Amino acid sequence: MSDLKAKLGLDVFKEGKAFPIAIKEGRERDPRLKKMVLICPAGLYGEDVSGTVALSSDGCLECGTCLQVCGTDVLDWQYPPGGAGVQFRFG
Fold first, then answer.
1. CA 59, CA 35: separation in Å to the nearest integer?
2. Domain that holds residue 61
3. Which of 3, 14, 15, 36 places its Cα 20 to 30 Å from the Cα of 57?
């Protein structure tokens, strides 16, 4: 796993005006979001003791896993505008 983290550490993340993914209001406890806590490759989803899931914007890989698992009824999901978002560095 440390090799993966080292490679991901080479990536560059350029912020846009707003983070392009958001949990829709009232959907913070949706069971599909709880799956994302386990399967998001960047580890951006976390669940607190009350069962509410929150989303961090740090290091999103824009892979679309959350969109496929949760759908647009749970998430507002957009690609970032041109020039923003992840820039992969292979090395």
1. 19
2. 2-87
3. 3
CATH of the domain at 24: 3.30.70
Could you read off the pLDDT of 44-84 as tens digits, one per residue?
999 999 999 999 988 788 888 999 999 999 999 887 777 76
Please state the pTM of the whole predicted model: 0.78
Q: How far apart are CA 23 and CA 52, in angstroms?
A: 11
Total domains present in the chain: 1
Neighbours of 54 (CB within 10 A): 13
Strand partners, 17: none
